[in-house]
Design goal:
Elements lengths: L3 E8 L30 H11 L3 E6 H8 L8 H8 L2 E4 L11 E5 L2 H10 L4 E4 L3 H9 L5 E7 L19 E8 L5 E7 L15 H12 L6
Parallel strand pairs: 1-5, 1-6, 2-3, 2-5, 3-4
Antiparallel strand pairs: 6-8, 7-8
Length: 223
């Protein structure tokens, strides 16, 4: 059975749109494309190599697929060779053929297709970019691991990694590293449900009892 890994470049406020260049994705008027590049160093390159190193199959949305397919087949290095050779599964509604080597459409029902892929034998699945696809996978609670490369920048707007419809999940930290450029690399795995507790006194104060009554009775006063 395969695992599904989400690896993402994200800003401090959770934006993952157009990390590699201004022309990657200007949708929504996004004006900060290429925000990863000034902080990309040897240490970060090592981390990228790390999550691509095990046998992987790429799982991509159509837009990210088109970005990759226009770039990597035209590069001449070992990383590009590995990327070009590995299987690529693409969630797409378009009838246009997938010209990049070893690419396979999984159709418009990405959740059902990914659930079936995970049940098969084969290399683990790895997403890159593909924010829209990731929203569907998070909502369906299909993600097993995250590698987040968190950059010291606030972008304000743009496509975000986590959306309000993501299924609640507990996570366990597998490891972390901070680069000299201030990028935090954190690896997490799924760890059951969300656990909770309370710092409140066992016997609430009169003020707390009143506060709870007020907020439950007049929620508009607290908006």
């Amino acid at each position: 059975m395969r695992k599904l890994h989400v690896a993402a470049f994200v800003s401090l406020d959770g934006v993952m749109q157009a990390p590699g260049g201004p022309e990657e994705d200007r949708s929504g008027g996004f004006a900060h494309g290429g925000w990863v590049v000034p902080k990309f160093d040897e240490a970060l390159g090592e981390e990228v190599d790390r999550f691509f190193a095990p046998p992987r199959a790429l799982l991509l949305g159509r837009k990210t697929y088109e970005i990759f397919a226009a770039h990597w087949p035209h590069q001449n290095d070992a990383f590009a060779d590995a990327l070009n050779a590995m299987p690529k599964y693409v969630a797409t509604r378009s009838p246009r053929p997938l010209a990049w080597n070893n690419s396979h459409p999984i159709g418009p029902d990405a959740v059902s297709a990914v659930r079936a892929l995970k049940a098969e034998a084969g290399p683990d699945l790895l997403t890159q970019g593909s924010s829209g696809l990731i929203q569907s996978l998070l909502k369906a609670d299909l993600v097993d691991q995250f590698t987040l490369l968190i950059f010291p920048v606030v972008l304000g707007s743009g496509k975000r990694l986590f959306h309000v419809e993501a299924a609640p999940a507990g996570l366990r930290l597998l490891g972390s590293r901070t680069t000299s450029q201030g990028v935090v690399v954190a690896r997490y795995e799924r760890a059951g449900d969300v656990s909770s507790g309370s710092f409140a006194r066992e016997t609430p104060s009169e003020d707390e009892v009143k506060r709870r009554a007020d907020i439950n009775g007049k929620p508009e006063d607290f908006q």
